[in-house]
Amino acid sequence: MSAQQPNGSRYQYLNRIGTIWLAVDQRTKAKAVVRAADTVADPAAIEKLAEIRHAGLPRLIGRTVDPDGKTAYVFEYLEGCSLAQMADQAGGALTQEILMPIILAVAKILGFLHRQGEFPLVHLDIKPDHILIGSNDAVSLIDFGASQLLDGQSRIRKQIGHALTPAYAAPEQAIGKPSPASDVFALGLVFLHLMTGQALSFCRTQPTASLLSNFPDAFQRLIYRCLHREVEQRFAHGDALASALASLPSIGSDVVANIAKTTGNAGAQKEIAPPQQPASVICVWGNADFGCELAAVLAEHEDVLVIDADLLNPRADLILGCGQPKTTGSDPLEAGGLDLALTCESRGHLDVISLNQYIRSTRVKGVSALTTTSGPTQYESFQLNALAKVIHLARLICRFVVILCSAFIFDGFTCLGLRMADRVLVPVAADIGSFREKNLAIDHQIAQYNFDINKLSFVAFPYSPIYDLSRGCVDELSRGRLIGTISDVGSRRKMKCGARPYAAALAKGNRHEYRDLIRKLRILPGRWR
């Protein structure tokens, strides 16, 4: 719908989304959200927003008349990417490290609403679409069309049935008896749905114990209490839920402990058991071909973002067959997507939305990339904290982030990638010299940066049983950290940097080797292993 401005109106209306308008204040030039007053359930709840202030809530600015001639409320416009969009980009489920801080922040916002004066203010339409993640990962709660001020007065309009979302609504809302615990129910359902990736209807009807069998008991108890049909058995309000979330132990560490219990003496295992939860960031130390091929096989199950952090020898754009960045006005021959993202962050402007604009599509299905063309000449102009922000935001976009790092031990970007990664894979030629060089580099990382050796694994790449050392010798050279071999094949050399990259057409044998490697790493959700 084209922009319009009713006669005498302070606001220019840009477009309509459902029951709301996106508008621009002609005096301040600030964006605003305009909603007709007859589409909200409880006017008193909306008016309450004018009296309270919270960074995670939209401020009620005032009233106006919308293009339909109706009295309407004007709300502050909050920038951000919705939790629903994040989940869709990640394939339907989010990792604990991404989701936990968001759910905790929403619980605290609800706690603030629930303790407003004598009468609680309840949202009553908590769902991923109404949770925003803005710049600096700030979390906001929007859309108060179904909200109520629980003061015992009968003001609720008939439109309440249309204002809320039944799929997330607590049972008592259907009979007109909402409470702060109703918001707890909905937020618990959001948590369960996005942690497991299961269909929402499945989450509502199946026992939580069966859905969360791979999760620690403390987490199962928390979700069970959130979703209890009896209001009195739930957390009473947002503050109580926030307190329980804050005391929840790390899911990853608990799962590892459970594995150790079920497999006997973990110390006797040659291979260290990694977490069962998906690893968000995988650092490939020293070989871009291996990293891009790994990403191609991971993408059979989840979307993958490859970040070419090897500014000394960038090659991912050639190996993956990258297209142009999504952003307009940039010449891909002059600036790569990673260059633009790092520059944007150096100016303090980078967020999830802008980072998305710098990501390139590739010839490999399910794989996108942040590439660079800067090389050594501009290497010193980029700051480490800028790359750290890029990696942090990348976690919010794709389930898996594969960082390609230089083999150079004193490269700052390499050291940062090794520290921020959940798993580090070291592709290395199967000869004595190559392993000695890499083991010395690892020892240096441990001595200088207290590097966690438990997250590192070796891969012999490319491997030939005819010309290379035996697998037993290679395993010994890797100090028992060899996790697999990827065979040397002629088609890899023939298709190198060609019109159709090898990563997009892996030989059947190589594809099976990568699948086996991924299975051993245990970095996919249980349904894919």
What is the compact description of this entry?
With 529 residues, the protein is α/β, with parallel strands linked by helices.
Topology diagram in text:
Blueprint (H helix, E strand, L loop, with lengths): L10 E7 L2 E6 L5 E6 L6 H6 L11 E6 L5 E6 L4 E2 H7 L6 H19 L6 E2 L8 E3 L5 E3 L6 E2 L10 H4 L16 H17 L3 H6 L2 H4 L5 H10 L11 H9 L4 H12 L18 E5 L2 H11 L5 E5 L7 H5 L16 H10 L5 H7 L1 E2 L5 E4 L13 H11 L5 E6 L6 H9 L2 E6 L3 H18 L6 E8 L7 H7 L4 E6 L2 H5 L13 H14 L8
Parallel strand pairs: 11-15, 11-16, 12-14, 12-15, 16-17, 17-18
Antiparallel strand pairs: 1-2, 2-3, 3-5, 4-5, 6-8, 7-10, 8-9, 13-14
Helix pairs in contact: 3-5, 3-9, 11-20, 13-14, 13-15, 15-16
Can you walk through the features of this model?
This protein is an alpha/beta fold and 529 residues long. The chain has 20 helices and 18 strands. It has 3 domains: 11-76, Phosphorylase Kinase, domain 1; 81-251, Transferase(Phosphotransferase) domain 1 (Transferase(Phosphotransferase), domain 1, Orthogonal Bundle), CATH 1.10.510; 291-432 and 482-528, P-loop containing nucleotide triphosphate hydrolases (Rossmann fold). Strand 16, helix 17 and strand 17 (456-463) form a beta-alpha-beta unit. Helix 3 (96-114) runs antiparallel to helix 5 (180-196) and helix 13 crosses helix 15. The model is unreliable at 158-162, 251-279 and 326-335 (pLDDT under 50).
Q: Specify the structural class.
A: alpha/beta
Strand-residue proportion:
15-25%
CATH class of the largest domain: Alpha Beta
N- and C-termini, Cα separation: 47 Å
